[in-house]
Design goal:
By secondary structure, the chain is mainly β. Helices cover about 5% and strands about 45% of the residues. The protein contains one helix and 31 strands. Strands 8, 9, 10, 11 and 12 form a five-stranded antiparallel beta sheet that branches. Strands 21, 22, 23, 24 and 25 form a five-stranded antiparallel beta sheet that branches. β19 and β20 form a beta hairpin. The longest helix is centred in the N-terminal third of the chain and has 18 residues.
């Protein structure tokens, strides 16, 4: 269980966050959805003081304590004890969170949902990142990342990245730093390090060391991409072993690898051709192999999408297990591996999810019957995905429907939609959960 704080500083932070965001959204030309934080969820009981100070005033309310009750009363008669609340059977245990970023034009926020034991999502509120959003899509995978009880998010509107500590009932800003580039869109965390992808222009990657959420630039961890003037990078990802960093470039049809040294510095990029056109999102399996989606130009090439699987060879080259396995869909952009046995892609233009069996050999085989694991049937625009820690529930951000849908992952990889989707801001991007 993660730490819970009920200090006055944190309660004021939640209320001020809501007020600041409401003021900022008033001048936005295009509506960004309901981003108002649920400030009424503050707990009035006294408890352990928060480690994090008030993000707005910097005040430390370590002396915020409730007066002790000495048990005396003016009426003389001892009051009768209140009856125990009736157990309605409706309470469901909270087992995790699912998080996205609002990315509205102006103040950026994390939009948080608790994940209950039955997989359904319940709104927790919205929490300022300290940075700015853009009000538009990012064209990337992995805009958020979690390590221990800390969340890291990109702020593409002011070229920063934020860290926030995760508590059971709120998030609290810890640090915010420049990414030393323009328009950060993707990040990856592991081994006490954070790597960020800057997407504008020729693009770049930047690495930071981490200490309880505080981010410090690593010497030798700022590196260029392929050298193309506009490669349109989609994602950065650190291998589970922490020894290789991978970047996909959509415009050049290339996949870059960087050796990660013991101090976190990066080698020069090794440029590899993608097996298919428009390599976009990817995810690592536990053994360091990874699956990449291939959009093949998106809507310009209906039915052409595919996926490939690789591992990074010595010297930074790619060993290919399965080369561009087609799925017959359009706009395959995001990838989620589940239980190290299945790989799913969101096909944004065709409003479907495709499923692949991921063999122990790391070869891909499309699910039977054409590989469509779920068909939304209309303009949902599925993009980002995440999976619960127990690998039982898959969550999909539908960008055109402004919602997060929940699916049960069956033993054979089939997907069963669970209940109603939850509403999110129309500018929301990125998805992470546990």
């Amino acid at each position: 269980m993660m730490r819970v704080s009920t200090s006055g500083a944190v309660r004021r932070f939640a209320v001020l966050s809501a007020l600041c965001l409401a003021a900022a959204c008033g001048d936005v030309d295009e509506p960004s959805g309901d981003l108002e934080a649920d400030s009424e969820a503050a707990d009035d009981e006294s408890g352990d003081d928060a480690d994090d100070q008030d993000a707005t005033t910097g005040a430390d309310d370590s002396n915020d304590t409730a007066p002790a009750d000495d048990g005396s009363s003016d009426g003389g008669d001892e009051p009768e004890p209140e009856p125990e609340p009736e157990d309605t059977g409706d309470e469901v245990e909270q087992t995790g969170l699912v998080l996205t970023i609002a990315n509205a034009e102006g103040l950026n926020e994390v939009v948080a949902f608790t994940r209950e034991a039955d997989g359904r999502l319940v709104s927790l509120g919205s929490f300022l990142t300290g940075g700015m959003g853009t009000g538009g899509g990012l064209g990337s995978q992995s805009a958020l990342a979690i390590a221990d009880d800390l969340l890291y998010v990109v702020n593409p509107g002011d070229d920063t990245v934020s860290s926030l500590r995760i508590y059971d009932d709120h998030l609290a800003l810890v640090d915010i730093v420049s990414t030393e580039g323009t328009r950060p869109t993707s990040l990856s965390v592991g081994d006490g390090r954070l790597y960020v992808l800057n997407a504008d222009g020729a693009g770049s990657v930047m690495g930071f060391s981490l200490d309880e959420g505080m981010m410090t630039p690593i010497a030798g961890a700022a590196r260029p991409l392929s050298g193309h003037e506009a490669p349109a990078p989609a994602q950065v990802g650190l291998s589970p072993q922490g020894d290789v960093l991978v970047v996909t470039e959509r415009a050049t049809d290339q996949i870059l690898t960087y050796a990660v040294e013991e101090d976190g510095s990066l080698g020069e990029p090794v440029v590899n051709p993608s097996s298919g056109q428009t390599p976009f999102g990817f995810q690592f399996a536990a053994d360091g192999s990874f699956v990449v989606s291939e959009a093949f130009g998106g809507g310009a090439n209906p039915g052409a999408s595919a996926s490939s699987s690789y591992r990074v060879a010595d010297g930074g080259g790619l060993w290919t297990f399965s080369a561009s396995v087609p799925n017959g869909q359009t706009g395959a952009c995001w990838v989620q591996i589940v239980d190290d046995r299945f790989a799913y892609t969101t096909n944004t233009a065709s409003n479907t999810l495709s499923g692949y069996d991921l063999a122990a050999s790391r070869e891909l085989a499309l699910f039977p019957g054409g590989g469509v694991a779920y068909d939304f049937g209309d303009e949902h625009g599925p993009i980002d995905m995440t999976v619960s820690t127990d690998q039982r529930y898959l969550y999909v951000l539908n960008a055109r429907a402004d919602e997060i849908a929940t699916f049960v992952v069956e033993d054979d990889g089939a997907l069963t939609e669970l209940g109603d989707a939850v509403a999110i801001p129309e500018t929301a991007v990125g998805l992470i959960g546990y």
